[in-house]
């Protein structure tokens, strides 16, 4: 039985012979035609079907899915997400630091008076809200700046984090003067580079 997948050499059709004349010898193999069908212009591309290979076929994305992806990749959404995350993280960090601080709830006018549980909880809440606001502002500024820098450069590498950290730290530090702004720029840039290096 012949195998259908075995490639057969292509031969040119022999010219017709006159009656009474011996049949001409078979022509030589035309390997050039064979190569054209294998690696040349006449080669048919093979279509890979994920379902035939055992994979899960991926349906085309709808317009709603594309719109959701564009919204999630936008700078305002990233800034809002970082703001919410910074608020939660800052609040938890503020409550934690207030919990281990022995001076929480004490009145500086009367340091010998023992604070009540209500005063301690109130002081912890105020510190948590303060930390949450600061972390939210820093997170939103850093995320928005990084998104703008990445969109401007057209690259996603460690330089985006360093530039964004320098801009964010400088903007926060400049409120206290030029020296504080320079220190804040360098400190935030170094911290951003270390975090980006660790995560990557």
UniProtKB/TrEMBL annotation:
Record's bilayer topology term: Multi-pass membrane protein
UniProt-listed InterPro entries: TIM22
Subcellular location: Mitochondrion inner membrane
TM helices/strands, residue ranges: 79-100, 180-199
GO molecular function: mitochondrion targeting sequence binding; protein transmembrane transporter activity
Domain of life according to the entry: Eukaryota
Gene Ontology biological process terms in this record: protein insertion into mitochondrial inner membrane
Annotated Gene Ontology cellular component terms: TIM22 mitochondrial import inner membrane insertion complex
Keywords: Membrane, Mitochondrion, Mitochondrion inner membrane, Protein transport, Translocation, Transmembrane, Transmembrane helix, Transport
Pfam families associated with the record: Tim17
Signal peptide range in chain numbering: none
Subunit structure: Component of the TIM22 complex.
Role according to the record: Essential core component of the TIM22 complex, a complex that mediates the import and insertion of multi-pass transmembrane proteins into the mitochondrial inner membrane. In the TIM22 complex, it constitutes the voltage-activated and signal-gated channel. Forms a twin-pore translocase that uses the membrane potential as external driving force in 2 voltage-dependent steps.
Family of the protein in this entry: Belongs to the Tim17/Tim22/Tim23 family.
Protein name: Mitochondrial import inner membrane translocase subunit TIM22
Species per Swiss-Prot/TrEMBL record: Chaetorhynchus papuensis (pygmy drongo)
Species classification: Eukaryota, Metazoa, Chordata, Craniata, Vertebrata
Gene giving rise to this polypeptide: Timm22
